[in-house]
Each structure stands twice: as C-alpha cells, then as structure tokens.
C-alpha cells in the first residue's frame, strides 16, 4: 500500500511540474507574440484561423514537455531537475521553431496578415502543423538516455532543417503552387501540406527517440527514416487518390473553385497514417 501511495504522490508531483511548464510555455508564446491578444482573437473576433494555429502550438507544447517526463525514473529530485531543464529547453526551441518555419516554410507571405487580418484558415493549418511537427521532434530529441541538452539541440536543428526540406519536396511533387493556394485561403491545400510535415516529423521523432549510442548510429536512423518518409509522400498521395478516393484526382479536388477540404483531410491522413505504419513495422 505504501508503495502505491508513493507512486501516486510522485505522479501528482510530475503532473504539477508539467502543468507549470505548460503555463510557462503559454506565457512564452504571449511574450514572443506581443501583438497577439489571445482572448480577443478567440472570443471577440471568433478567429477560427488563429484557434487552429494556437491549438497546434499548444499540442506541440504538450508533446515537447512530454519528452522531458517520459522514460525511466532516476529518483524524484533528479527527475524534477531533468523535467524543468529539458522542459524549459523545449519551450524555447518550440517558440524559436515557429519563427524559423514562418520565415522558411511560409516564406512567400506574411503569416500575421493571413491569420490575424484575413483569418486565413489555410495558413492557420500550416502554423498548427509547424507546432505539432516541432513538438514531435523535440519529444524525440529530449527523451531517451545517453545524451544531454546539447545532443537535444543538435537533434532539433537537424529535425527543423529536414522539415524545411520536406516543405520544398512537397511543393515539388504537387502540380500547383501550394503557398499561393494557401495564401488564397485554400484549406484543402493547407491540410495536405500540414499532413506531410507532421508525417515526416513523426518519422524523425521515431528515429531520435531511442537511447543515444553514437552520432553515427543516430545519423543512420535519421537518414533511413527521412528517406522512407520522402518516398512515402508521392506513394501515399497516389494510393489516397486510387484507394481512399476511388480514383478521383486529389489535384482536381483541391484546385476546383470551391476546394474540397474533405479531400485535403484524407490526403493528410494518408501521409500521417503511412508514417505511423512505418514506425510500427520498423
């Protein structure tokens, strides 16, 4: 009975620690985005584009903090130290990632204008995907044994670089200008690209979530998983069209006068589902 009570008490302490980190992450977002009035956007303006983007950030924050708490225990005090050191690092990296991705992935237009002035849900979806994708990468980077904070930062840098490459590859395999479509509030185009980013991030997360053995081993895992992911994108797009949509063209549905958001969602599912299957099989 005493052992059960101790585990329950420790669980409450860990939960409280994560909640504190979550609040810090929420405060950090407001500190970085001083121009954003969260309550006004959500309640007064009913800005759905921002709601989607912010939910993605909160989801990424949850995943990033999760990386600091999962894994074997080394004693309460050591666990709490690790939780706050890596948790705070995760908050910093997540907010830095949003800025980097805005400049590189959504480089052709102002994310602020699209989300807060035009209430462009297509841009909100990509911003959400950036948050979730980065959260997955940080989850993998700060979890596992054998590394330190510098190892986590290097994994994060590699992961972010691969996300940017993924965005370019996705734009190359689609026969339309994804960023132009997203800028015109094409939610279907945004969903497809968002699914590609999350799918690749999940594969990177899986590659770096193992205990750190050596850089050679880690680079090999990352390279294999990223390579499989890049191959996955056109394959799953083709299969989604032929199997899930029974022969209907994804491009035609996305590019029609009233874009088919359902098809964009199916495309996103195909990418993410494929990445999950890869992690299960390997």
What labels would you give this structure?
globular; 282 residues; 81% helix; single chain; 12 helices; mainly alpha
Q: Secondary-structure blueprint of this entry?
A:
Layout: H1 2-32, H2 38-44, H3 48-69, H4 76-104, H5 111-117, H6 121-142, H7 149-173, H8 178-183, H9 187-208, H10 215-244, H11 250-255, H12 261-281
Helix pairs in contact: 1-3, 1-4, 3-4, 3-6, 4-6, 4-7, 6-7, 6-9, 7-9, 7-10, 9-10, 9-12, 10-12
Task: Output the structural class.
Answer: mainly alpha
Low-confidence runs: none
Biggest pleated-sheet summary: none
The general outline is: globular
Strand-residue proportion:
under 5%
Instruction: Quickly count the helices.
Output: 12
Radius of gyration: 19 Å
- Assembly context of the chains: single chain
Total strands: the figure is 0
Helix content range of the residues, please?
over 70%
Residue-averaged pLDDT, rounded? Answer: 90
What's the N-to-C terminus distance?
Answer: 40 Å
Order of helices and strands: HHHHHHHHHHHH
